[in-house]
Amino acid sequence: MQHVSSFRSRLVRAALGALAGLLAAFTALAVAELVAGLVRPAAGPVTVVGGAVIDRTPAAVKDFAIRAFGENDKIVLQLGILAILALIAVGLGILAVSHRRAGAAGVLLFGIVGAAAALSRPDSTGTGDALPSLAGAVAGALALYVLAARAAPLPAPDGQAGPGAWSRRGFLAAAGATAVVATSAGALGRYFTGRQGQGAVASRENLVLPAPASPAPAVPAGVQLKVPGITAFTTPNSDFYRVDTALTVPKVDAGTWRLRLHGKGVARPRTYTLDQLLARPLVERDITLTCVSNEVGGPYIGNARWLGVPLADLLEEAGVRPPSKGGGADQLVARSVDGMTLGSPVEDLMDGRDAILAVGMNGEPLPFDHGFPVRMLVPGLYGYVSACKWIEDIELTTFDAYDPYWVKRAWARRAPIKTQARIDTPKPFARPAAGTVTVAGVAWAQRRGITRVQIRVDDGPWQDADLAAQAGVDTWRQWSYRWNATPGGHNLTVRATDGTGQVQTERRTRTIPDGASGLHGVFVTVP
Questions:
Q1: Distances in Å between the alpha carbon of 325 and those of 46, 130, 321?
Q2: 205, 304, 377, 417: least CB-packed within 10 angstroms?
Q3: Please, how many CA atoms are within 13 Å of residue 406, restricted to the half-sphere of its CB?
Q4: Distance separating alpha carbons of residues 253 and 202, to the nearest angstrom
Q5: Would you say 173 and 146 are in contact if contact means Cβ atoms under 8 Å apart?
Q6: What Rg, from alpha-carbon coordinates, does the chain have?
Q7: Tens digits of residue pLDDT in 40-80
């Protein structure tokens, strides 16, 4: 019986140790969030460690995460980090019951790792970014040391109340107090973080966009087909895809925001405020934006009406010339407030296309998710080489001199958007009734436009689909095809032809390094 009692007591100690470890981790994160709220929210340990993980993740793994989890990939990463921390905390808690100093030292070690991650981030503002992780680690180590001391003694062998029983009562009291203090610290941290973002929220709410000097051309009648299930021509802001590396969406105050323009070939460097940009002649354009991570038939594409400053005008005023006219810089590097860098060909930015610094999206200031107060947008280029959100710095340089973020991770330097078509309806594995079935979707080839879309049923011949009106070469185009569906299983495949006469390739490639290619198809069963 004594052996059984000893085993049970060890099991109780382990359970109490595990609980102590979890509470210590909770305390560390809560205190770190409080300090981050006072210092800089983006320096919180989960954010900086998550960012460091993203930066060091191979491109193929990132691509898989986007395919598997879509826009929830960041939530999955954060939950994964918290799960790993919880497991480690349990282990350190059990260790601390017998070796309190070792357990506490383990917590401090993680604080050092978090501090190092904070200082290594491209958006780090200095040594202050290490404070949240270090303060949280010290608080967590103290909590673990105290709780482990309460959980350590064994119960009396006869099962009567003794030092061990009193210690566990003390442990429960200490655990409760720790939970209350940690919860309060976390709540205060969220309060201070929210207060830091209030200025940014207010600056967006109070921003009145000026009328464009060059309004968008009227959208032709017939761009939107009346087909149930087809994607809308204009994507609402709330539905527009978001793919980026920011674990915490930057909240930038428009009043304090600045944009610096400098670098090779810039004869007149400038720094702009938002008011200065808004005072310039603005252009309004319908432009379809596409992510390079979009698989064939994927969802990472959207069309919006953008309002912004022509980028070529700013570059010309600064004395920049494209390489074709003797300019020394062939790459424009755009930097975001979170440290992201994207590189665009200067020639493309100054060839007459509507490359803009966007301030508005579908009639309102940019949403925070999509780059408020200013983002870059270049028709015809995938987002990772052109669509810098939360932009704050533009540097002119060369492709030989500098590799931006994604180029360092095996993606191509130059990435024009490929001709693609997608079937929106019927959906994969749908069971439409026999008879006339409308197959419909969208096709895109920014800067070239779509001139033809064709459908193939099983291994039959390619048949021309009906095209909706074309709004412009920089937007997608809807199409439809009336199919006489017969009973059985059928493969429906679509392909597009762009304005240069180039037919969409059947060759299937991955998204890495410069965008997916191949034909989109769906399998349906007609009962």
A1: 48, 47, 6
A2: 205
A3: 31
A4: 8
A5: no
A6: 29
A7: 888 888 888 888 888 887 877 777 777 777 778 778 888 88
Residue-wise pLDDT for 277-309, tens only, equals 999 999 999 999 999 999 999 999 999 999 999
- Average the pLDDT over 437-455 and give the result: 98
Q: Are 188 and 436 spatial neighbours (Cβ–Cβ below 8 Å)?
A: no
Determine the Cα–Cα distance for residues 45 and 451; give it in Å rounded to an integer.
Answer: 51
Query: Would you list the DSSP string of 346-401?
Result: HHHHTSSS--EEEEEETTEEPPGGGTTT-EEE-TTB-GGGT--SSEEEEEEE-TTT
Token code pair at residue 285: 């354009």
Q: Give the pairing of strands 391-397 and 258-263.
A: parallel
d(CA 470, CA 427): 24
Q: Hunting for tokens 């991570």 — which residue is that?
A: 293
Q: By mean pLDDT, which of 62-71, 121-130, 479-488 is the weakest?
A: 62-71
* Angle, CA 379 vertex, CA 377 and CA 383 arms, to 5°: 55
The reported pTM is 0.87
Average pLDDT in the chain: 92
Angle made by CA atoms 299, 305, 311, in degrees to the nearest 5:
105
**What does DSSP assign to residue 321?**
-
- What is the residue type of 476? W
CA-nearest of 401, 369, 402, 404 to 385 is 404
For residue 168, the model assigns a pLDDT of 66
Phi, psi of 161 (to 5 degrees): -60, 130
Residue 126 φ then ψ, to 5°: 135, -170
| Beta bridge mates, 287 | 304
Q: Pull the structure tokens for residue 228.
A: 């149930």
Q: pLDDT exceeding 70 applies to what percent of the chain?
A: 95
CA gap 361, 387 in Å, rounded: 13
Which tokens belong to 254?
């428009």
Percentage of the chain with pLDDT > 90? 75
Q: Looking at 238-342, list the stretches that DSSP marks H as alpha helix, in order from N- to C-terminal side.
A: 274-278, 311-317
At 206-235, the pLDDT tens digits run 999 999 999 999 999 999 999 999 999 999
